[in-house]
Amino acid sequence: MNTQAYKGVMVIAELVDNQIHQTTYELLNWGRGLADKLGCDLSCAVLGSDVRGLNEIIYRGADKVYNVNSPSLEKFLAKPFTSALTRLIAEEKPEIIVAAATTTGRTIMPMAAAELGTGLTADCTVLDIDPEEKILLQTRPAIGGNIMATIKTPRHRPQMATVRPRSTRQAGRDSSRRGEIIEKKYEPVLFSTSEKFIEFIIDTTQNVNIQDADIVVAGGKGLKNRDGFKLVEELAGVLGAGVGASREAVDLGWVSYPHQIGLSGKTVAPKLYVAVGISGKIQHLAGMQTAEFVVAINNDPDAQIFKVADVGIVGDAWEVVPEFVDAIKKIKACA
């Protein structure tokens, strides 16, 4: 393969109801950093129907926006989206393609990689450029999150990766930036598929989605049992927060997997993260390290979580958390 024929970094915009989702701006942050290290352009592929606000993608760091616009892309279906993506890649030949590790990214990126005959590293937590080889370094958890593996794609192009949402901050906004928006119109036959969109069903198992929450209260093994974990749920309830958990708490059956935070769970970046009874193993820290402010409650003064906490409280959760809950209720009552 002539790897020299491929140039530039491309990210795949994340859309919700054909609106640009904030995850797109996180991808642009990753992409801008990679493109700057390579000294190349950053482009963004928008696959949808009459998507608005494309200039915002330029303001957030893209040099080019490829707008693949078709009524067939109004609802997400795997084959039409993959066909559009592979056609765009064949035309533009980016050397690196990055998408979010979401339902969309986890579906179309493997299909596209298979069609293109290249590799894909899924669910990355870190992306970087090898300073000598100038190729993509794709780091992701392996062996149940116990080690971090760094993967390269030296002989095939494009180099493809999906990256966890909330693994970096959103790209900054500069309304003075200028770029190019390129409309892509493809023949209808490209989008033909035997698939049919029937219904979108919302997951109601979580009152607040932890990846979208401004506040997350998470509990760990230090809470001793399921009754102890109810302290986390009560504190989250009065704060209007999402409920998170360490892997140990999930493995013990105190809460379901969608609440798990860490290398083998979700990555969150709330404004406030409250860790209750969590020791702070590296596997968990990797899932919440981009939180803006961290409060840790643990009865072990040597717990690792205190090293990343902005405020640390050494004490028994059974005593500390109820006091927090009472204080918050009183404040709300006076408001």
Automatic annotation (TrEMBL):
Q: Which UniProt keywords apply?
A: Electron transport, FAD, Flavoprotein, Transport
Q: Name one GO biological process term.
A: fatty acid beta-oxidation using acyl-CoA dehydrogenase
Give the InterPro entries listed for this entry: DHS-like_NAD/FAD-binding_dom (IPR029035), ETF_a/b_N (IPR014730), ETF_a/FixB (IPR001308), ETF_alpha_N (IPR033947), ETF_asu_C (IPR014731), ETF_asu_C_CS (IPR018206), Rossmann-like_a/b/a_fold (IPR014729)
A molecular function (GO) term: electron transfer activity
* Residue numbers binding FAD: 246-247, 260-264, 277-284, 298
Gene3D superfamilies in UniProt: HUPs (3.40.50.620), TPP-binding domain (3.40.50.1220)
Keyword Metal-binding present in the record's keywords: the answer is no
Q: Where is the Electron transfer flavoprotein alpha/beta-subunit N-terminal domain?
A: 9-195
Cofactor binding description:
Binds 1 FAD per dimer.
- Segments carrying the region annotation (Disordered) are 155-177
Requisite cofactors: FAD
The family line of this record is:
Belongs to the ETF alpha-subunit/FixB family.
Q: What is this protein called?
A: Electron transfer flavoprotein alpha subunit apoprotein
Its source organism is: Desulfoscipio geothermicus DSM 3669
